[in-house]
Amino acid sequence: MNIKVFTKIVLPIIFFIIILEGCGRDTSTVEKAIIGHWVEKLDKGKAHYYISENQIIMLYKGEKTIMDYKILRSNEKKGFIEIDMINPDGDVYNEKLTFTNKNRTKIKAISRFKSSSKNYESYGNEFSKEISELVSSYLSTVELKNTWTYVDDATEP
Fold first, then answer.
1. Which of 82, 100, 87 is nearest to 149 (CA)?
2. How many domains, in total, are found in the chain?
């Protein structure tokens, strides 16, 4: 092979392949594969989730919510991870996330309200506390199903 052909054609192709191999997100585990920017299409717009190793930033209708999350369990074979997201008010939302394709760019999400840390006694009467507990109990039985789509590796907006 001619040295000019090698340096002008083959070498750049090899270099390009090496660069591509080094790029991309880590999908080796479900814990690593959820990291990045995801979009969830909702009836009234889109929710954007920016997930890092310890927090989730959610943008919805121009509002930004920063939440901590903890991993409850995961299953590599099933491509599944379950997390609890805790918002600034102390409300806990449970997310069951299942990857639906091999390259882990689509997630079937099942969300439900789990609990609240609000002190309802501050409303001043027992009736308010009971109503609030009843509403929380009902909300914990409602599951919302949706699809998340991977956008990029951003962990902040």
1. 100
2. 1
